[in-house]
Automatic annotation (TrEMBL):
Lineage of origin: Bacteria, Bacillati, Bacillota, Bacilli, Bacillales
Name of the protein in question: (S)-benzoin forming benzil reductase
InterPro entries: Biopterin_syn/organic_redct, NAD(P)-bd_dom_sf, Sc_DH/Rdtase_CS, SDR_fam
Principal subcellular localization: cytoplasm
Any one Gene Ontology molecular-function term assigned to this protein's record: sepiapterin reductase (NADP+) activity
Amino acid sequence: MKMAIVTGATRGLGEAIASGLVEKGVGLINISRRDNENLKAMATDAGVTYSFHPCDLTSATDTEQVFREVGASVFSSGADTIYVIQNAGLVTPINPSGQVDAGSLEASVHVNLLAPMIVLNEMISASAGKSGQMLIVNVSSGAGSRPVYGWSTYCSTKAGLNMLTETVSLELSTSGHDHKVISFSPGVMDTDMQGEIRSSSQEAFVEVEKFKRYKEEGTLRSAKTVADALVNLITETEVESGNLYHINDLV
């Protein structure tokens, strides 16, 4: 039996990844603020298990509690393969340093970096002495590898996420675990997040016109295209732990 835990599966890439996994016969645990009735119906039709666990990823306490419970449950379920897709993320705040409020900084760091750290910690802890191989996917961004004006928080948290992947991979291999962790850079997609980016002012985000052209010229990939590539990567191939996989190399 295969199980997947997906954060941020309410819409966009997270929903598309979750859908793709369900179509492959993988049971789904949806970790989001709100439930997704479409995913629930898909799981029923596919004959796989589905559960929803509300979680506020801006809260370290809530994240720790939810994943402690989910980790214990999934490693007692008899699943031989467990996918953990850390998809939830915030592109905001979009503003140069000196013009960002502390509250939005805190929320971004919590969702983009601290929550994934907590999730990894809880899931690895829950796996101790249990059967089942775990593959963790940290959804990153090209912004984690280059500076972008107005995205100091987003770039920094995604760069940190990439290093988290490499470091935890090293720890897992050194301690003899069979679990793997990778990063995945999905590129630019036609999602609500792109809408947020395009609504930025030129002063806040100097590359805004380039992102508007992506939409106007139809060069944005669909969330489904990107999700299908990731799902095929993790279900049909042997990934190398610690690697950063980019969508451009998969489609």
